[in-house]
Amino acid sequence: MTPIRLRQLGQYDASFEASVDADGIWRVDGGSYVTRGVREGRLSSAEHAAIGALAAAVAMRETHAIPEDARGFTSTLDVGGDTLEWWGPPPTPALRALANALAGLGA
């Protein structure tokens, strides 16, 4: 599977980052005013395949406008060498499904 990394920036100090490498090693670092700490682990082969399928369903070549005055609430998804950015909640069902799966790792 291709490496995946999702970074989301909220307002002020709120941020979230989740990554899964090609071997299924994952890391989630979510924090806001109170840090939630780092969670790490390794996906089972079934989980790895499921996350890979969710990532493959995302149309990485789409563009989603980010307002010029956007202050936070921006997201960047890297899948392999492709990057996709958006503002606000994930704008497509495929992005929403992948973001939710990544946020749920180790929860």
In short:
The chain contains two helices and six strands; from the N terminus they run ββββαββα.
Descriptive notes:
The chain has 107 residues and is an alpha+beta fold. The protein has one domain (4-104). Helices cover 21% and strands 36% of the residues. The chain contains 2 helices and 6 strands, in the order ββββαββα. The chain has helices at residues 45-56, 93-103, and strands spanning 4-9, 15-20, 25-31, 35-42, 74-79, 82-87. It has a 6-stranded antiparallel β-sheet with strand order 4-3-2-1-5-6, covered by helices on one side. The longest helix has 12 residues, at 45-56. The mean pLDDT is 88.
Secondary structure topology:
Blueprint: E1 4-9, E2 15-20, E3 25-31, E4 35-42, H1 45-56, E5 74-79, E6 82-87, H2 93-103
How many structural domains does the protein architecture include? 1
Count the beta strands.
Answer: 6
Rg estimate, integer Å: 14 Å
* Number of helices, where a helix is a run of at least 4 consecutive DSSP H or I residues: 2
Q: How far is it from the N-terminal to the C-terminal residue, by CA? A: 22 Å
| Largest sheet descriptor | 6 strands, antiparallel
Mean of pLDDT: 88
Structural category is alpha+beta
Main sheet strand line-up: 4-3-2-1-5-6
- Judging from the principal axes of the Cα atoms, what is the shape? globular
Low-confidence stretches: none
How much of the sequence is in beta strands? 35-45%
Q: What order do the SSEs take from the amino end to the carboxyl end, as H and E? A: EEEEHEEH
Helix content range: 10-25%
